[in-house]
Amino acid sequence: MLAPLIVALAVTTYSYWLNNKNKK
């Protein structure tokens, strides 16, 4: 199933977004 892959991608994107927001 693709579900685990999608979840992993979402978590990675969220983490990257949080890092970007913190940098600013």
Q: How would you sum up the major sheet?
A: none
Query: Kindly state the mean pLDDT as a whole number?
Result: 94
Q: In terms of per-residue confidence, which ranges show pLDDT below 50 for 5 or more consecutive residues?
A: none
Span of the ends, CA to CA: 37 Å
Number of helices: 1
Helical amount: over 70%
Q: How many beta-strand runs?
A: 0
Shape: rod-shaped
The class by helix and strand makeup works out as mainly alpha
Strand-residue proportion: under 5%
List the secondary-structure elements in sequence, H or E: H
Rg is: 11 Å
Architecture overview:
It comes from Veillonella rogosae. This is Type I toxin-antitoxin system Fst family toxin. By secondary structure, the chain is mainly alpha-helical. The termini are far apart. It is rod-shaped and about 35 Å long. It has one helix and no strands. It is 88% helix and 0% strand. It has one helix at residues 3-23.
Features:
single chain, 24 residues, mainly alpha, 1 helix, rod-shaped, Type I toxin-antitoxin system Fst family toxin
What topology does this entry show?
Elements: H1 3-23
Short description:
The protein is 88% helix and 0% strand. With 24 residues, it is mainly alpha-helical.
